[in-house]
Design goal:
2 copies of one chain form a homodimer. The first copy, chain A, has helices at residues 26-35, 57-61, 74-77, 140-158, 163-169, 179-195, 225-238, 284-292, 341-360, 399-412, 416-432, 443-446; strands at 18-22, 41-46, 50-52, 71-73, 84-88, 91-95, 100-103, 108-110, 113-116, 120-122, 171-175, 209-213, 240-243, 247-252, 255-259, 265-269, 272-275, 279-281, 302-303, 309-310, 313-318, 323-324, 326-327, 335-336, 373-379, 382-389, 392-397. With 453 residues, chain A is α/β, with parallel strands linked by helices.
């Protein structure tokens, strides 16, 4: 790495602009692709070795898909882009004056233009101690952790003779009824009601309770109210018990406490809690804010100019979940860009185009988000879709929405092979009610103490 | 678990014999299958939640297959056997007088007949401190560990500016040239020469050295000498440097030391070492020996009677890698059963049949091993096969042997879906030279310190 300091970075001799891209999620990947044929040198810094197709991460967590089906090695993605250098490493800071990115191994790398696409992580609203007993779902490691907890909770229940403790081990709680919470709860209910049927001798997995706990008054708040209502009915039909207006006030190794709107509190004994309530931008957002003076919102997202660059730092762009960006449609009020993958992809492409404009001495363009709508899956044959078309909204729910969701997601998966395998896995899961990836690799170390007995 | 002590174990009321099977590898699985329709109750105790198809584990370690492709959940395998209870747990001991199996959570379970099929683990010949820097390959967790080390060693080399340190990070050492060592070395050479080509900007992955270090005078010592010779040539053609008559005398975080036949020593700097040299029986072997007085050999295997039961304890059978068993063909000298999966499977079936014979008051049969030969894969289009047929030996090597090996392994994989996916993965790897499962889930924690810089 030392040889990659600004003086000797790749491309320095060719005098081509050097663009550094931090993160290879949807935003970083699209930005890199948009720059692949430009006369620039690109360095992509990513802290894992893969691009993750996050919309299907819940399927890895619920044992429906193997990890490699939704993760593509970054080096393979960029193998045919000779102007792209991939760097496996974690960014510890940015020095805007020196135009340097610092990595946590102490090395640094210079840039002419910087795209920060470091994404988001889960937030416990200042209660980080909850993380140990209520993992969130952002990375493959998270997904494996949740898969282990879900499957081993049933195993622990099978071995538990005390009825109360057995009931707690058959109680699964998902906190937060956004898209991730809804699909996790729906799929966990499907596992309990269908996948595991007939496999245990001392418990009935179908008697498991799957709770979806939401502080607000409806599920899928980003959706139109009529679709929230339909999603609620579908969740209940799948066997999920939805508790609205329930604020979580405590989480420990044996359960959680909620507070209802009337101030009363409730204790729920559970050994498997999934956190799907809070999302916060990568800590890099606040670092950038401090270093450049850019404003950072409550969720840690950096407020960007209409062209996605930072105020006073046109050479730095922020895209994706890390950006508090607005969509600027001609003749309309600017509107916030939602934190969804099409938003990140479009921002990545727009930031790349604006950098090329700057290099060419042209004016940059304000970002405009093309909203194709919103969709969320719930479980077997269950989804809600709110499509935005030039002729207005098209709303679907139930089986047809689920099929639409499925093909849309498979279509956007990276790689022909992955699409085929995911479709096969889904077809086989659909017909057999089985789930392919029910493997817990490192059992002894991974068993939480309270499920061991 | 407490309710499963001998007085209340499942089947106690029906007065059907209770058979406990420890382990669900090839031996335990076949024994359970052989007993599925018998008038007995069976409890299978397995410490992971899956049956592992170990012959393809090296493919998970070398990123060719996803873990779920070679692992089937134990509960799914036995779902349709109502007389089988599956117990996820680890056995800590056996009490032959009380006829009790003790689990490490303190609970115990009674048996009328016991089949111990706990398998083998890797052995460092008393040098357990080597394990940290030279992992073996027995479990999925091992495979993930090795996958991470192999892939991250190339990443560390890409970031290393010092030529000597870079060379060490591009040196891969496999210790032991048995079947596992040969296939690991061959596949690692393929990854370096083909899979990673064109993906790095500062190193040529093809310049990596893959060393196969063997204490004996030839590779694949269980094979006829002519096939060892052919395997050696194939390994060298794939780019593996084979070092015979090299005894490993030290392993640390930065490399290993070998001693040649002439007493001279050699230092090899390497950050990725795989241990494929020693196999030892599960510690349960010695425990059983102490508890029953049965003889235990140097490798920790329990010497069994011709019918696979323990001397003085006809109600306990030992099968698979844990048993030092002999094959008793009529009119021939007894011969040791090799530690291969067909041996374990046949022993599992034989032990089950002998238990049913005992229950019915019939005489037990001595075990006879049907030897169909021996096969080992080396890498792309490379394998050696030594088939035993009624008309003598059929020996193959190269592409035809590889095709034979491939279809034999896919045929014995569990589940139609797995066969299809594995074939697809192989077809795609074969044509594209790519490997599907190049995903390292938990990077930051997993990076060994010496590859971080």
């Amino acid at each position: 790495m030392r040889r990659m300091s600004s003086s000797t970075r790749p491309g320095a001799s060719s005098a081509r602009p050097h663009i550094v891209i931090i993160g290879c999620g949807f935003g970083g990947l699209e930005a890199t692709r948009a720059l692949q044929r430009a006369q620039v040198d690109i360095t992509v810094i990513e802290k894992t070795n893969h691009h993750l197709f996050q919309p299907l991460l819940y399927q890895v967590a619920t044992a429906g898909l193997a990890a490699p089906s939704i993760a593509a090695p970054v080096r393979v993605l960029f193998r045919n882009y000779p102007n792209v250098t991939t760097l496996l490493g974690e960014v510890s800071g940015v020095d805007p004056d020196e135009r340097m990115v610092r990595l946590n191994d102490g090395s640094q790398i210079g840039y002419d233009h910087l795209i920060v696409a470091a994404g988001a992580t889960h937030s416990y609203f200042g209660r980080d101690e909850w993380a140990a007993n209520a993992p969130g779902l952002k990375t493959l490691a998270d997904a494996f952790d949740i898969r282990r907890r879900v499957l081993l909770s049933f195993e622990a229940a099978e071995r538990e003779s005390d009825p109360l403790r057995r009931r707690a081990k058959l109680t699964f709680a998902v906190i937060g009824a956004g898209p991730t919470g809804v699909e996790m709860a729906g799929t966990m209910a499907e596992i309990a009601r269908h996948t595991l049927q007939g496999e245990f001798r001392h418990i009935d997995p179908g008697s498991a309770e799957v709770l979806l706990i939401e502080g607000g008054g409806r599920v899928l708040q980003a959706m139109p109210e009529v679709l929230s209502q339909k999603a609620l009915v579908q969740l209940q039909k799948l066997g999920v018990e939805v508790r609205l207006n329930s604020r979580v006030t405590g989480i420990d190794a044996t359960g959680l406490t909620t507070q209802l709107a009337d101030g009363s509190t409730q204790r729920i004994d559970s050994h498997c809690i999934v956190w799907a309530a809070g999302v916060a931008a990568s800590p890099l957002g606040r670092m950038l804010g401090e270093a450049t003076g850019a404003e950072v919102d409550r969720a840690g997202r950096v407020k960007v100019e209409p062209d996605l660059s930072l105020p006073g730092h046109p050479e730095i762009s922020v895209v994706g979940d890390l950006a508090a960006a607005m969509s600027h449609a001609p003749g309309k009020e600017p509107r916030p860009v939602p934190g969804v993958s099409p938003g990140a992809k479009q921002m990545g492409r727009a930031a790349a185009a604006n950098i090329l404009a700057r290099i060419a001495g042209r004016a940059t363009q304000p970002f405009r988000y093309s909203d194709y709508g919103n969709l969320a899956t719930i479980g077997r044959n269950s989804a809600v879709v709110d499509l935005t078309t030039p002729f207005g909204h098209v709303r679907m729910s139930g089986r047809i929405a689920w099929q639409f969701w499925l093909f849309a997601h498979v279509y956007f998966l990276i790689g022909f092979r992955n699409r085929l395998v995911v479709l096969m896995d889904w077809a086989s899961a659909y017909w057999s009610f089985q789930r392919y990836a029910r493997v817990v690799p490192d059992l002894p170390a991974g068993v939480p103490p309270e499920t061991k007995g």
